[in-house]
Amino acid sequence: MLFNSPEFIFLFLPVVLMVYFSLSRMANKRPAKYWLVVASLFFYGWWEVSYLVLILFSIVVNFYVGDFILTFRESGRQKQAKSLMIAGIIFNASLLSYYKYANFVLENFALVTSQDFHSLDIVLPLAISFFTFLQIAYLVDCYKDHDKRYDFLDYTLFVTFFPHLIAGPLIHHKQMMPQFLQRENWRFISSNFSKGLFIFSLGLFKKMVIADSFAVWATAGFDGDHVMTFFDAWGASLSYTFQLYYDFSGYSDMAIGASLMFNIVLPVNFNSPYKAVNIQDFWRRWHITLSQWLRDYIYIPLGGNRGTQIGTSVNLFLTFLVGGVWHGAGWTFVIWGALHGGALVVHRFWQRAGFKMNMLLGWFCTFMFVNFAWVYFRAQNLEDAHRVIKGMIGLNGFEVSPRFVAMFGSAWEWVRIPAGPAVHFSTDLIFLPCLLAVGVLTLLAPNVTQMTNFSQGYSGRFSYMKTVRFATLAGVSGGVGAVLLFVSSSSEFLYFNF
């Protein structure tokens, strides 16, 4: 079930909200929690019921491993606690590795040994990267400093809560679990609902109007084996740069908005990353929850910046190499992670040398580098990535190829309006204005946090503002209009693949 589907917007979400707040009026809150867990598992199993077995198995194992780690710590058996934590991490990593990386490893082994490769019949389960990282963090915290025990129902709700389950934000148990214990969060709060509805609608607009529009042009450029000229390649790469941002930030906004309707505050995941003036600034703004996870559970355990400059650089590079591999099994993701790791190492030496750069020049260099690296992130293989890059550096000429224009035209021949005639567009005329308009919007417009004064604190209550009420009405109208206009062309979110 997609956040941008009519089934979710007009049926699933309203029903879950109404039943949840009806049950939460009871003195015993467990029926309301059970309802959220059942609804979340239904949401997860909508694509494939067999996925439920895996996620429930993972939840049961991690809950009891964490419980035993706490028991060992309380009795002073630190060695046993550490051994169990390591075993739990190996279990989670093995589960993720089998489903996500087994075929990649076997394919490269066969390539090195010149043997025939037969891929395993493995279907990547939804959200396995997210719920694996989430539970690894829980086990590490149980060993390090976490003393509060959760019961199995609360832990299951933490892992499966449907707004964040499929593609984040990558939440931490200390951020979410206490919110379910706050008495005021068990009642319907109109200000939270109003603000949540606005944030959800804004995310819906980002996804269906902006991201899905640029997806057409990005697909026309990246998919295929045609030669790409300079303008063709830059059109495709910039299209994907904006598609990915508005797709994933749109999903995060919808997750945050839907969660806020339940009075649960999820962490902000984006803070206008394309306004970043250096690569470190970019990673403080892009996929913030993943950056924090990599820092806390990869970079710091490796040694962080406590050693020599060379050691710190190695730790930084390895951390982002892990981040690249986390996104997918392929050399394109390895290269993407290595590029960002290398850029952060260079930035660190640049800072320590005391060099300065004009802010505008810093923004331009950062954006161009990020756009270049996204080519590897998007390409299906290295050949496709290099085909685009050759075009970007002008090796195939500077004219706009007729074939590429034709591909744009065939992909956007029409947008169907329900119960209405087809509306035709001249794609070669609208592409450049759309690109410029969205570029200006991305750089100058306030983000959702600024528009709503959304706090990253973990109290579910917000002051009610008339401006938010008006913005909610406008956002809902735009969101519903987007659903009605684009329902025939709605697509999955890009991070479902990771």
**What would the average pLDDT be, to the nearest integer?**
85
Strand coverage percent: under 5%
Q: Name the assembly state.
A: single chain
Secondary-structure-derived class: mainly alpha
Note the gap between the termini. 17 Å
Q: Nearest-angstrom radius of gyration?
A: 23 Å
Contiguous runs where pLDDT drops below 50 for at least 5 residues: 410-429, 455-464
Individual helix count: 20
Number of domains: 2
Largest beta-sheet characterization? 2 strands, antiparallel
Q: Care to give the gist of this entry?
A:
This protein has about 500 residues and is mainly alpha-helical. The chain folds into two domains: about 180 residues, no CATH class; about 300 residues, no CATH class.
Task: Tell me what the structure shows.
This protein is mostly helical. It has 2 domains: 182 residues, no CATH class; 306 residues, no CATH class. The protein has 20 helices and 2 strands. A two-stranded antiparallel ribbon has the order 1-2. A hairpin with a 5-residue loop joins β1 and β2. The chain is globular. About 6% of the residues have low confidence.
Compile the SSE list and pairings.
Blueprint lengths: L5 H18 L6 H16 L5 H24 L3 H36 L14 H17 L7 H9 L1 H4 L7 H4 L13 H33 L7 H32 L17 H5 L4 H15 L6 H19 L3 H22 L6 H20 L3 H11 L9 H10 L2 E3 L5 E3 L2 H18 L3 H5 L13 H21 L12
Antiparallel strand pairs: 1-2
Helix pairs in contact: 1-2, 2-6, 3-4, 3-5, 3-6, 4-5, 9-10, 9-17, 9-20, 10-15, 10-16, 10-18, 12-13, 13-14, 14-15, 15-16
